[in-house]
Amino acid sequence: MSNSVFPNDFLWGGALAANQTEGAFLEDGKGLSTVDLLPAGEKRRAYMEGHIPTLELQNDLFYPSHEAIDFYHRFREDITLFAEMGFKALRVSIAWTRIFPTGEEDEPNEQGLAFYDSLFDCLLEHKIEPVVTLAHFDVPVALVEKYGSWRNRKLVTLFEKYAKTVLTRYRDKVKYWMTFNEINMLLHLPFLGAGLIFEKGDQELQIKYQAAHHQLVASALAVKACHEIAPEAKIGCMLAAGMFYPYTSNPDDVKAALDRDRESYFFIDVQARGYYPSYARRFFEENDIQIDMQPEDQEILKANTVDYIGFSYYSSRTTSTDPEVLAKSTAGNVFHSVSNPYLKKSEWGWTIDPKGFRITANQLYDRYQLPLFVVENGLGAIDVPNKEDEIEDGYRIEYLKQHIEQMAEAIKDGVDLIGYTSWGPIDLVSASTGEMKKRYGYIYVDRDNQGNGSLERKKKKSFHWYQKVISTNGLT
């Protein structure tokens, strides 16, 4: 252990989200969340992009979040399996609508609060640190209907109330918090990321960046609340990371890659540095974007910067200014990326680039000089049991092995890493596709894309591999 490059207190574990695992979507007083409106199938992408015909549930559509993998009732069984692997941390999220079903109640829903008490207590009993995200693609539908979601300043106040409620309730149980999951996703999947719905004639870019400003102020106020309520805790931000490569050494391609990186780093620049970067101001001027700021906003952002940077990494991206090259984009990727001829791809068209993981970690640390926390990394793949009913997922082991090796190299480079919570330690509903067959877990869940199956849990080959990785602190 002493020869490992990973610190002795490194937080090995896994990450999941309430809306992709819990199910029980209206149980014990929970309100309807935006993710509860996302159907499986062909319509899902249009919904996530903000083109939603109705906020009513429809009988002819299947909504995978409604039952998901029933973590709400089975979390003790699942946490026992995580503990058997040796987890030091589990990243989870709190469903806003379990605490305030419509977002505007005077008092929180005690049944929702009690559920997370039980969840965190169970984790701590197994010596697993809860790492808690306040908003993982969850907005109360009632706030979308009444205010238009994050386009309205009212949500800043309501989110601050929610944040203070849970920070106060769990201040003795949770040491690591994050504000918004993959906050930059707002620009790409605005309904998923911020509950935004667009109508014909809307100035979508203006609406997105105004909503982004509201989320950034709300994030800063949550940081302020955490520092006051739970001063021993750490609270961070989180982005969907993965650097852009220029397709060629043409300076135009290099500049295009810089611009695409800044598109995401903008959010973290504000959360980590406390002010709007100059390149964003130019972008706003050139695109006629007028951000409505309150007089106190600049001071709120400046005084309440984050303690660490959380990030997800699945793949790098590549961009070009050549129209013919741009036409050949990778399939299945939320971030538009052209095909990189030097890299392999997953079954869903995501580039597999372990060295890009190291490069991205170095970029982030060079930029912010704050501790980093890898809170998502994994491979979505189709797992098929063999004749002995075993899941031999050597492809997943190889993917994770290569990425952990590059993470070790980043530490040798001097990057300060808090921990590594791989995405989907148990099979869950895919956020991008709503599928179950796109599996990430070390634990197989018997459920298919149509919601059929026993929900039985079963260890995969990768379960025992990751157990060994953790027990040797990354030496094996």
TrEMBL record:
Residue numbers annotated as active site: 376
Example of a GO MF term: beta-glucosidase activity
PROSITE patterns assigned to the protein according to its UniProt record, in alphabetical order: GLYCOSYL_HYDROL_F1_1, GLYCOSYL_HYDROL_F1_2
Gene Ontology CC annotations of this record: cytosol
Any one GO BP annotation for this protein: carbohydrate catabolic process
Keywords: Glycosidase, Hydrolase
Family that this chain belongs to: Belongs to the glycosyl hydrolase 1 family.
PANTHER family: 6-PHOSPHO-BETA-GLUCOSIDASE (PTHR10353:SF296), GLYCOSYL HYDROLASE (PTHR10353)
Protein name: 6-phospho-beta-glucosidase
Organism: Terribacillus halophilus
